[in-house]
TrEMBL record:
Organism: Papaver somniferum (Opium poppy)
Disordered: annotated segments: 1-96
Full protein name: Uncharacterized protein
Lineage: Eukaryota, Viridiplantae, Streptophyta, Embryophyta, Tracheophyta
GO-annotated biological processes: response to abscisic acid
Biased composition annotated in UniProt, kind: Polar residues: 1-10
Length: 96
């Protein structure tokens, strides 16, 4: 390298990863260098697959809208129901 710095060894990078530091771009969450490389590769591949599914124009539009597609009404908010146990918003307070 021109700057005179040596690249850190794999064991040094593994130690940093175990401490929670990201040593590979987009590798957040991996506890080893290999895990971070696999995560980064998977994220990249997932984005490419989504781009192929939507087409370049649809992919760009999705990014502008924060993930909402124009077909969903743009600002549709999920409505809870009493039958949905995962939705804690509509709780029948008379049974409490």
């Amino acid at each position: 390298m021109a700057s005179g710095q040596q690249q850190p060894s794999k064991s040094e990078l593994d130690e940093k990863a175990r401490q929670g530091e990201t040593v590979v771009p987009s590798g957040t969450g991996g506890k080893t260098v290999e895990a971070q490389q696999n995560l980064a590769q998977g994220r990249s591949r997932g984005g490419q697959t989504r781009k192929e599914q939507l087409g370049s124009e649809g992919y760009q539009e999705m990014g502008r809208k924060g993930g909402r597609s124009s077909q969903s009404g743009g600002g549709a908010v999920r409505q809870g129901s009493k039958d949905d146990p995962e939705d804690g918003l509509d709780v029948d307070e008379s049974t409490m």
